[in-house]
Amino acid sequence: MDQPVESFATRAMQYIPRLRRYARALTGDASAADDLVQDALERALLKQSLWREGTDLRAWLFTVMHNIFINQVRSAAANRLVPIDDVAADAFADAHSLQASDRLEIRDLDAALQALPEEQRTVVLLVGLEQMTYDEAARVLEVPIGTVMSRLSRGRERLRRLLQGMPEPHPLKVVK
Amino acid sequence: MNAVPVTEAELHAYVDGALPAVRAAEIAEYLGQNAEAAQRVAAYREQNAHLHTAFDDLLVEALPRRLRVGGAARRRAWYPYAAAALLMLASGTAGWHLHDRVTGARAQTTQIARVAAMAHAVYSPEVRHPVEVGADQEEHLVRWLSKRLGASLKIPHLAPQGYALVGGRLLPGERGPAAQFMYQDAKGQRLTLYVRVSNDVRAPTAFRFAQESGVGVFYWLDGRLGYALSGETDRNELLRVADAVYQQLNP
């Protein structure tokens, strides 16, 4: 009986608009976003036997899409020799935003999001837009929850500075 | 007052509503005394609102052809079930015309979520009079409310999901009478299904989720009827039940 196939597809379909919203915010480009969603759907259908009944399908679909996105970012980054680890990306974005804010203030949300390192952008969007719990976001991104929280802190703070046109990085530490 | 120092992570957990109530209250007090942190918390909240304003349209926008069931996945049969739930809105013909209608539908749905959440908050804590007509008079309940709303209503049965019907009541809606059905699980956790009728027939919309002061709401429009399922339960649980409601109303 092919009930599982149908129920997988039926259930997966309801998340397409959410995948699309996330992809659009993530890539900053409508057609790149739909490419990404389409790739993710095709991959999800091919790999649907890997999804376990009773587990969170939304998280699974986001994970599938995230992995595709990361591969794209990494291969693009390799071509452009852009550093991709957290710390290096932070330094890169800092240098970048300082220069940018000298010329003009980035007030546009889309532009500000794109100025975030990818690791921070994903967390800010999964939590802030998709309203995932930290635990759900950690599972989607396949990183520890502590990493989610530190990326969220840095990402939101950077976004705040970008949107408010504040040039100086704000030190992030324990507030007393 | 702040015996335990407030960490950066806690400020974010506060923004995201992820702290236990006691700690959240301590943070709120701390923010009252710390303008810099309070400003940042306000800015982070604003970011979230800003993100929704900028991107939520995509939740109700018609899907491009290539993301419709047939386009993305010819290899597999997700096709026969295209009629299910969300993708109906993408299956129309004229994209922009549909988009306009959907945008109009959106304002309506936001309104329904607010009203339904309020009705949930008012009636679900009621101990003695949670409903006007109890589940023991279900037939009367459905006839009465169908007559008052001027539409043939169905009461979903949610026993397989663990919820028993408590009963229902008539409510004043945005533009006329509305109905509220109340359900309860074994632990006394209550969900309410709000139903209202509108004069114009709408293409079915996607499930949308809203949160109004602690009450989660999944809502959707289908033909002349608008539905909103509300509960103070976690979102996945609410979605599971909303899905069952939808399936029963659209066999």
Order of helices and strands of chain B: HHHHHHEHEEEEEH
Radius of gyration of chain A: 17 Å
Largest interface: A-B, 49 and 52 residues
Unreliable segments of 5+ consecutive residues of chain A: 1-6, 81-107, 170-176
From the N-terminal CA to the C-terminal CA of chain A, the straight-line distance is: 61 Å
End-to-end Cα distance of chain B, whole Å, is: 58 Å
> What number is the mean pLDDT of chain B?
79
Put simply, the count of helices of chain B is: 8
Considering the protein shown, what is the CATH homologous superfamily of the largest domain in chain B? MucB/RseB, C-terminal domain
CATH topology of the largest domain in chain B: Phosphorylase Kinase, domain 1
Question: Largest sheet of chain A at a glance?
Answer: none
Q: Give the strand tally of chain A.
A: 0
Total helices of chain A: the number is 9
Question: Could you please describe the fold and organization of this structure?
Answer:
The complex is a heterodimer of chains A (176) and B (251). Chain A has 176 residues and is mostly helical. In chain A, 73% of the residues lie in helices and 0% in strands. Chain A folds into two domains: 1-81, Orthogonal Bundle (Rna Polymerase Sigma Factor, Chain: A), CATH 1.10.1740; 83-176, Winged helix-like DNA-binding domain superfamily/Winged helix DNA-binding domain (Arc Repressor Mutant, subunit A), CATH 1.10.10.10. Chain A has helices at 3-13, 16-27, 30-46, 57-80, 86-103, 109-115, 118-128, 134-141, 145-164. In chain A, helix 2 (16-27) packs across helix 3 and helix 3 (30-46) packs across helix 4 (57-80). With 251 residues, chain B is of the alpha+beta class. Chain B folds into two domains: 8-54, no CATH class; 105-249, MucB/RseB, C-terminal domain (Phosphorylase Kinase, domain 1, 2-Layer Sandwich). Helix content of chain B is 42%, strand content 22%. Chain B has helices at 8-15, 21-33, 35-55, 57-60, 69-72, 95-123, 138-149, 235-249, and strands spanning 133-134, 164-172, 177-184, 190-202, 208-212, 215-231. In chain B, a hairpin with a 5-residue loop joins strand 3 (177-184) and strand 4 (190-202). The N and C termini of chain B lie far apart (58 Å). The relative contact order of chain B is 0.11. At the A-B interface, helix 1, helix 2, helix 3, helix 7 and helix 9 of A face helix 1, helix 3, helix 4, helix 5 and helix 8 of B.
